[in-house]
Inverse folding.
């Protein structure tokens, strides 16, 4: 069955997964179109409206400076989604490149890549991101880079493991015998057939990246005020938790719902694409199951830690 | 680490310091030496377990790490215990009631647990048990053993709940595959009570993948403890590294990084030792 057919079957046959996909689409549309939506400026302050509970005028209430929480949650969603996609894009590209070098060429390039990934995987991902963002400064790009530092080795490991087995297949040997150039073999035969586990890893790492960004902002190390992020909203809401719990609860709910939706969707895509899950029958409840991990390199994709997870 | 923006000497002396006094302090702290030389000095000292002195408080880094290590380690271990004590029974229940609403509820609950970050758990617990019903302290680590236990409860729950889902999911799937084995059928056939079959035969073997996952996630657990320390204003490595980052205190930041890597390696080692306890065949 083709990749598209397997994905279509995994998504369309499960109402829960369809709901999650729908939620992500709606959130993305709202986040991208927030600048044209009729919501107040997320940084616009008003002393008269400070700490107002949810009402018809401010659907999710206002914060200590009178800023509209709904508007800030939506602008925060935009940032979280950019970070999620940015981290997966950057670490996917670099990690896959390293994985190709390590898996296809073997020998000393493989050893260098493996030792480098070992070093980075030994650090707790959150602490690595905290120090990296401190070294590089805190803006959107450096936050993406800081989280990617912990996720690049994961892509490299998965890509290497898959490519190691693919490079020995008969069709690669046939392409080589026909005189195909090395870049052509890598791009058209090796990489194209190694794409499934990488797609699965992408879907599992998006929620991890969103959580790590929220954690960094919460700790005051990521993107800081006045730019709204879910993490820094919870951090500032904590000060008035008793008087105005909505400052914390709404961005908290936004994080939980978004991460849950991505997790469920990621699980469904993994179930459809990962052979270790797809080929084992009988022990799984719909899209919310996990199986014991098989050691690297060519094992199945277990959910990565949530703090670039972490969290 | 030396690429960090900001000058620690200027940060220590404040805004009114003259350039001369900043230069004198840089010389005193050895910050005026070339970076390769500073690195060589650091590595030589590291071999003597000397991590230098904090630039901000002038205390040896090893002393600061010694003070911060135990609260974090205690919290990490308690968080792991919570995840095992809640996650394993939840996973067993889901496996035994496979295909029922209980299984589905446990599986969805497990996924929900994975999706709620430590700091959201922390804030929810604070809201419930410190503000709404003031039963537990919202900050500090406590002095007496009872206070220590009370102050540890909410951070442990926040750290552990995040891992509960993962442990429950692995326990469920691992137990289901073990229950299909011949030796489980034999144990049932010879008339053993269902509880004895599950606990004595199936669960023990099913715990190996659970141990693997806990070992693999040692770094995440440590990260969770660091965040919980911030939410509950507890002393530990989390507070130490945050304060060090704000003060541009390089030796302390380096010290925390080194200790956290050692801790992750040690926690993995403990997991390896536990394999042989859970499965005597590993020792053979």
């Amino acid at each position: 069955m083709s990749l598209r057919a397997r994905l279509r079957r995994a998504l369309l046959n499960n109402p829960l997964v369809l709901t999650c996909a729908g939620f992500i689409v709606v959130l993305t549309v709202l986040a991208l179109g927030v600048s044209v939506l009729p919501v107040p400026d997320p940084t616009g302050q008003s002393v008269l409206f400070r700490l107002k509970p949810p009402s018809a005028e401010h659907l999710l209430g206002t914060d200590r400076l009178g800023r509209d929480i709904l508007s800030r949650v939506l602008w925060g969603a935009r940032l979280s989604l950019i970070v999620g996609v940015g981290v997966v894009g950057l670490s996917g590209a670099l990690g896959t490149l390293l994985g190709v070098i390590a898996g296809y060429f073997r020998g000393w390039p493989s050893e260098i890549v493996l030792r480098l990934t070992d070093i980075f995987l030994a650090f707790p991902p959150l602490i690595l991101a905290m120090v990296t963002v401190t070294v590089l400064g805190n803006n959107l790009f450096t936050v993406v880079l800081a989280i990617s530092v912990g996720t690049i080795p994961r892509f490299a490991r998965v890509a290497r493991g898959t490519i190691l087995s693919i490079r020995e297949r008969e069709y690669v040997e046939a392409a080589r015998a026909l005189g195909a150039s090395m870049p052509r073999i890598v791009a058209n035969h090796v990489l194209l057939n190694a794409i499934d586990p990488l797609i699965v890893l992408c879907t599992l790492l998006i929620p991890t990246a969103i959580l790590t960004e929220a954690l960094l902002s919460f700790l005051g190390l990521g993107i800081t005020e006045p730019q709204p992020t879910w993490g820094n909203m919870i951090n500032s809401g904590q000060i008035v938790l008793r008087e105005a719990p909505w400052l914390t609860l709404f961005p908290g709910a936004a994080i939980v719902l978004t991460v849950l939706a991505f997790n469920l969707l990621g699980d469904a895509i993994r179930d459809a694409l990962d052979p270790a899950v797809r080929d084992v029958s009988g022990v799984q409840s719909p899209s919310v199951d996990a199986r014991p991990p098989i050691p690297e390199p060519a094992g199945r994709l277990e959910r990565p830690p949530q703090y670039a997870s972490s969290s | 680490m030396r690429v960090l923006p900001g000058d620690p000497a200027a940060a220590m002396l404040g805004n009114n310091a003259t350039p001369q006094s900043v230069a004198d302090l840089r010389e005193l702290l050895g910050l005026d030496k070339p970076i390769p030389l500073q690195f060589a000095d650091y590595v030589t000292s590291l071999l003597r377990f000397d991590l230098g002195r904090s630039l901000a408080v002038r205390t040896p880094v090893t002393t600061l790490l010694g003070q911060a290590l135990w609260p974090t380690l205690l919290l990490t271990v308690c968080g792991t215990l919570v995840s095992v004590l809640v996650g394993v029974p939840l996973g067993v229940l889901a496996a035994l009631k496979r295909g029922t609403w209980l299984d589905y509820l446990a599986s969805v609950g497990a996924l929900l647990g994975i999706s709620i970050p430590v700091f959201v758990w922390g804030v929810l617990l604070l809201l419930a048990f410190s503000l709404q019903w003031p039963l537990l302290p919202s900050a500090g680590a406590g002095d007496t053993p009872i206070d220590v236990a009370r102050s540890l409860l909410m951070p442990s729950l926040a750290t552990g709940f995040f891992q509960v889902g993962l442990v429950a999911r692995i326990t469920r799937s691992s137990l289901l595959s073990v229950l299909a084995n011949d030796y489980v059928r034999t144990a049932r056939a010879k008339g053993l009570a269902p509880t004895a079959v599950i606990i004595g035969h199936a669960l023990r073997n099913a715990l190996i993948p659970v141990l693997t996952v806990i070992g693999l996630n040692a770094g995440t657990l440590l990260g969770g403890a660091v965040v919980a320390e911030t939410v509950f204003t507890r002393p530990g490595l989390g507070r130490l590294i945050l304060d060090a980052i704000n003060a541009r205190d390089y030796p302390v930041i380096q010290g925390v990084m080194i200790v956290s890597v050692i801790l992750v390696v040690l926690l993995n080692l403990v997991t390896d030792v536990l394999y042989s306890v859970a499965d005597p065949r590993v020792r053979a």
Q: What stands out?
A: The longest helix of chain A spans residues 69-105. Chain A touches chain B through 51 residues (CB under 8 Å).
